[in-house]
Amino acid sequence: TLEWQRGLDAAIWFGPRIPWLLATLPLAVIARARSVLSDRTATWLALLCGAIPAAALPFVKEGGWINNFIPLFAPAGTVALMLVVDLARPRRALALSAVHGVCAAALASLWMNGEGLRPTRQDVARGQALSSSVRELRGSVLCPLSPMLALRNGHADEQAPWLAYYDATRAGIGTPSQYGEWIERTKPDWILLIDGDTLLEQVGVSTHYEFDRDLDTPELGRIPLLYAVPHRLYRRVSNP
Protein backbone atom coordinates (compact mmCIF):
# COMPACT_ATOMS: atom_id res chain seq x y z
CA THR A 1 0.00 0.00 0.00
CA LEU A 2 1.39 3.41 -0.99
CA GLU A 3 0.73 6.43 1.23
CA TRP A 4 1.34 9.44 -1.03
CA GLN A 5 0.58 11.95 1.73
CA ARG A 6 3.68 10.70 3.53
CA GLY A 7 5.73 11.58 0.46
CA LEU A 8 4.27 15.09 0.38
CA ASP A 9 4.99 15.57 4.09
CA ALA A 10 8.58 14.44 3.56
CA ALA A 11 9.06 16.78 0.57
CA ILE A 12 7.79 19.73 2.61
CA TRP A 13 10.18 18.88 5.42
CA PHE A 14 13.21 18.17 3.22
CA GLY A 15 12.77 21.07 0.78
CA PRO A 16 14.26 23.83 2.96
CA ARG A 17 16.96 21.49 4.27
CA ILE A 18 18.41 20.34 0.94
CA PRO A 19 17.53 23.19 -1.46
CA TRP A 20 20.37 22.17 -3.75
CA LEU A 21 18.31 19.10 -4.69
CA LEU A 22 15.67 21.41 -6.20
CA ALA A 23 18.40 23.37 -7.99
CA THR A 24 19.89 20.39 -9.82
CA LEU A 25 17.27 20.11 -12.57
CA PRO A 26 17.41 23.74 -13.83
CA LEU A 27 21.21 23.72 -13.48
CA ALA A 28 21.42 20.50 -15.50
CA VAL A 29 19.17 21.89 -18.24
CA ILE A 30 21.26 25.07 -18.49
CA ALA A 31 24.55 23.13 -18.51
CA ARG A 32 23.29 20.83 -21.26
CA ALA A 33 21.98 23.77 -23.33
CA ARG A 34 25.39 25.46 -23.09
CA SER A 35 27.20 22.20 -23.95
CA VAL A 36 29.29 22.38 -20.77
CA LEU A 37 27.85 19.33 -19.01
CA SER A 38 30.84 17.05 -18.36
CA ASP A 39 30.69 13.26 -18.61
CA ARG A 40 31.58 12.95 -14.93
CA THR A 41 28.75 15.27 -13.89
CA ALA A 42 26.33 13.44 -16.18
CA THR A 43 27.25 10.17 -14.45
CA TRP A 44 26.61 11.65 -11.01
CA LEU A 45 23.39 13.23 -12.26
CA ALA A 46 22.18 9.82 -13.42
CA LEU A 47 23.06 8.43 -9.98
CA LEU A 48 20.97 11.16 -8.35
CA CYS A 49 18.03 10.53 -10.69
CA GLY A 50 18.11 6.88 -9.71
CA ALA A 51 18.40 7.74 -6.00
CA ILE A 52 15.18 9.78 -6.00
CA PRO A 53 12.76 6.88 -6.69
CA ALA A 54 15.04 4.47 -4.80
CA ALA A 55 14.55 6.63 -1.70
CA ALA A 56 11.00 7.90 -2.19
CA LEU A 57 9.18 4.69 -3.12
CA PRO A 58 10.27 2.69 -0.03
CA PHE A 59 9.23 5.64 2.14
CA VAL A 60 5.71 6.10 0.76
CA LYS A 61 4.88 2.42 1.10
CA GLU A 62 3.22 1.24 4.28
CA GLY A 63 5.95 0.81 6.86
CA GLY A 64 8.42 3.22 5.22
CA TRP A 65 10.87 5.12 7.43
CA ILE A 66 12.59 8.49 7.14
CA ASN A 67 16.02 6.90 6.77
CA ASN A 68 14.90 5.67 3.33
CA PHE A 69 16.00 9.14 2.17
CA ILE A 70 19.64 8.68 3.18
CA PRO A 71 20.71 7.88 -0.45
CA LEU A 72 19.58 11.38 -1.50
CA PHE A 73 21.75 13.46 0.80
CA ALA A 74 25.27 12.83 -0.52
CA PRO A 75 24.58 12.90 -4.29
CA ALA A 76 22.26 15.94 -4.03
CA GLY A 77 24.97 18.27 -2.75
CA THR A 78 27.70 16.72 -4.88
CA VAL A 79 25.74 17.00 -8.15
CA ALA A 80 24.72 20.60 -7.49
CA LEU A 81 28.34 21.57 -6.86
CA MET A 82 29.57 19.74 -10.00
CA LEU A 83 26.92 21.47 -12.13
CA VAL A 84 27.95 24.88 -10.85
CA VAL A 85 31.60 24.09 -11.66
CA ASP A 86 30.64 22.95 -15.17
CA LEU A 87 28.72 26.16 -15.80
CA ALA A 88 31.54 28.33 -14.52
CA ARG A 89 34.43 26.37 -16.03
CA PRO A 90 34.90 28.65 -19.09
CA ARG A 91 35.99 31.34 -16.62
CA ARG A 92 38.38 29.89 -14.05
CA ALA A 93 38.02 32.70 -11.50
CA LEU A 94 34.25 32.51 -11.76
CA ALA A 95 34.37 28.75 -11.23
CA LEU A 96 36.34 29.16 -8.00
CA SER A 97 33.94 31.82 -6.76
CA ALA A 98 30.97 29.64 -7.66
CA VAL A 99 32.36 26.73 -5.64
CA HIS A 100 32.87 28.98 -2.64
CA GLY A 101 29.37 30.39 -3.05
CA VAL A 102 27.68 26.99 -3.22
CA CYS A 103 29.60 25.75 -0.19
CA ALA A 104 28.68 28.88 1.74
CA ALA A 105 25.01 28.50 0.79
CA ALA A 106 25.02 24.87 1.89
CA LEU A 107 26.57 25.73 5.25
CA ALA A 108 24.15 28.62 5.73
CA SER A 109 21.22 26.31 4.99
CA LEU A 110 22.40 23.82 7.59
CA TRP A 111 22.87 26.59 10.13
CA MET A 112 19.42 28.10 9.54
CA ASN A 113 17.48 24.85 9.30
CA GLY A 114 19.50 22.51 11.47
CA GLU A 115 18.64 23.80 14.93
CA GLY A 116 16.27 20.93 15.57
CA LEU A 117 18.97 18.46 14.47
CA ARG A 118 21.79 19.79 16.63
CA PRO A 119 21.86 18.31 20.14
CA THR A 120 22.01 20.91 22.91
CA ARG A 121 24.14 20.52 26.01
CA GLN A 122 21.00 19.48 27.83
CA ASP A 123 20.33 16.82 25.18
CA VAL A 124 23.86 15.45 25.61
CA ALA A 125 23.52 15.40 29.40
CA ARG A 126 20.16 13.63 29.22
CA GLY A 127 21.53 11.14 26.70
CA GLN A 128 24.40 10.33 29.05
CA ALA A 129 21.92 9.95 31.91
CA LEU A 130 19.86 7.53 29.81
CA SER A 131 22.94 5.44 29.02
CA SER A 132 23.93 5.40 32.69
CA SER A 133 20.44 4.26 33.71
CA VAL A 134 20.51 1.41 31.19
CA ARG A 135 24.03 0.45 32.27
CA GLU A 136 22.92 0.17 35.90
CA LEU A 137 20.08 -2.26 35.18
CA ARG A 138 20.66 -5.72 36.60
CA GLY A 139 19.67 -8.62 34.39
CA SER A 140 18.97 -8.94 30.66
CA VAL A 141 17.66 -5.95 28.69
CA LEU A 142 15.65 -5.98 25.44
CA CYS A 143 15.37 -2.80 23.39
CA PRO A 144 13.23 -3.68 20.33
CA LEU A 145 13.61 -0.36 18.46
CA SER A 146 17.22 0.50 19.39
CA PRO A 147 19.16 -2.65 20.29
CA MET A 148 22.40 -0.66 20.41
CA LEU A 149 21.13 1.22 23.47
CA ALA A 150 21.34 -2.04 25.41
CA LEU A 151 24.43 -3.43 23.66
CA ARG A 152 26.58 -0.30 24.04
CA ASN A 153 25.78 -0.13 27.75
CA GLY A 154 27.03 -3.51 28.84
CA HIS A 155 24.03 -5.74 28.03
CA ALA A 156 25.27 -8.23 25.45
CA ASP A 157 21.94 -10.03 25.50
CA GLU A 158 20.26 -11.52 22.44
CA GLN A 159 18.29 -8.80 20.64
CA ALA A 160 15.56 -9.04 18.01
CA PRO A 161 14.86 -5.73 16.19
CA TRP A 162 11.09 -5.22 16.13
CA LEU A 163 11.16 -3.43 12.76
CA ALA A 164 12.19 -6.65 11.01
CA TYR A 165 9.16 -8.43 12.49
CA TYR A 166 6.99 -5.40 11.68
CA ASP A 167 7.97 -5.49 7.99
CA ALA A 168 7.49 -9.26 7.81
CA THR A 169 4.06 -8.98 9.42
CA ARG A 170 2.95 -6.23 7.01
CA ALA A 171 4.17 -8.39 4.12
CA GLY A 172 2.02 -11.27 5.32
CA ILE A 173 4.92 -13.61 6.05
CA GLY A 174 4.86 -13.39 9.83
CA THR A 175 2.70 -12.63 12.84
CA PRO A 176 3.28 -10.49 15.96
CA SER A 177 2.83 -13.61 18.08
CA GLN A 178 6.14 -14.92 16.72
CA TYR A 179 7.89 -12.00 18.40
CA GLY A 180 6.02 -12.81 21.61
CA GLU A 181 7.20 -16.41 21.35
CA TRP A 182 10.78 -15.18 21.02
CA ILE A 183 10.36 -12.99 24.13
CA GLU A 184 9.01 -15.96 26.06
CA ARG A 185 11.97 -18.05 24.97
CA THR A 186 14.59 -15.50 25.99
CA LYS A 187 12.64 -13.98 28.95
CA PRO A 188 14.43 -10.59 29.19
CA ASP A 189 14.26 -9.05 32.67
CA TRP A 190 13.70 -5.56 31.28
CA ILE A 191 12.15 -4.14 28.10
CA LEU A 192 12.67 -0.56 26.91
CA LEU A 193 9.91 0.98 24.78
CA ILE A 194 8.87 4.42 23.50
CA ASP A 195 5.85 6.53 24.47
CA GLY A 196 2.56 5.04 23.36
CA ASP A 197 4.14 1.77 22.23
CA THR A 198 1.69 -1.14 22.47
CA LEU A 199 4.21 -3.79 21.46
CA LEU A 200 3.70 -5.88 24.60
CA GLU A 201 -0.03 -6.08 23.91
CA GLN A 202 0.50 -6.74 20.20
CA VAL A 203 2.76 -9.73 20.77
CA GLY A 204 0.75 -11.14 23.67
CA VAL A 205 3.16 -10.82 26.61
CA SER A 206 1.68 -7.80 28.43
CA THR A 207 0.68 -9.93 31.43
CA HIS A 208 4.32 -10.86 32.02
CA TYR A 209 5.59 -7.27 32.27
CA GLU A 210 4.58 -4.18 34.19
CA PHE A 211 5.62 -0.54 33.82
CA ASP A 212 8.51 0.32 36.13
CA ARG A 213 9.54 3.91 35.38
CA ASP A 214 10.53 6.47 32.75
CA LEU A 215 14.25 6.93 32.16
CA ASP A 216 15.65 10.37 31.34
CA THR A 217 16.06 10.81 27.60
CA PRO A 218 17.13 13.46 25.04
CA GLU A 219 14.25 15.43 23.54
CA LEU A 220 14.77 14.02 20.07
CA GLY A 221 11.03 14.20 19.41
CA ARG A 222 11.77 17.76 18.18
CA ILE A 223 12.78 16.24 14.85
CA PRO A 224 9.73 15.71 12.57
CA LEU A 225 8.93 12.19 11.38
CA LEU A 226 11.37 10.50 13.78
CA TYR A 227 10.23 8.28 16.61
CA ALA A 228 11.35 9.11 20.13
CA VAL A 229 14.18 7.50 22.03
CA PRO A 230 13.18 4.33 23.95
CA HIS A 231 12.91 5.22 27.63
CA ARG A 232 9.80 3.60 29.12
CA LEU A 233 11.08 0.74 31.25
CA TYR A 234 9.06 -2.43 31.84
CA ARG A 235 10.01 -5.10 34.40
CA ARG A 236 9.25 -8.80 34.04
CA VAL A 237 6.89 -9.98 36.76
CA SER A 238 6.14 -13.48 35.50
CA ASN A 239 8.85 -15.99 34.69
CA PRO A 240 7.20 -19.40 34.15
Give your account of this protein's structure.
With 240 residues, the protein is α+β, with helices and mostly antiparallel strands. 55% of the residues lie in helices and 7% in strands. The chain contains ten helices and four strands; from the N terminus they run H-H-H-H-H-H-E-H-H-H-E-H-E-E. It has helices spanning 4-14, 19-33, 39-60, 70-88, 92-113, 121-135, 147-151, 162-170, 176-186, 199-202, and strands at 141-142, 190-193, 209-214, 232-236. Strands 1-2-4-3 form a four-stranded mixed beta sheet, with no helix packed on it. Helix 1 (4-14) packs across helix 3 and helix 2 (19-33) runs parallel beside helix 4 (70-88). The protein is elongated and about 75 Å long. The two termini are 40 Å apart. Residues 220-227 have low confidence and may be disordered.
Compile the SSE list and pairings.
Blueprint: H1 4-14, H2 19-33, H3 39-60, H4 70-88, H5 92-113, H6 121-135, E1 141-142, H7 147-151, H8 162-170, H9 176-186, E2 190-193, H10 199-202, E3 209-214, E4 232-236
Parallel strand pairs: 1-2
Antiparallel strand pairs: 2-4, 3-4
Helix pairs in contact: 1-3, 2-4, 3-4, 4-5
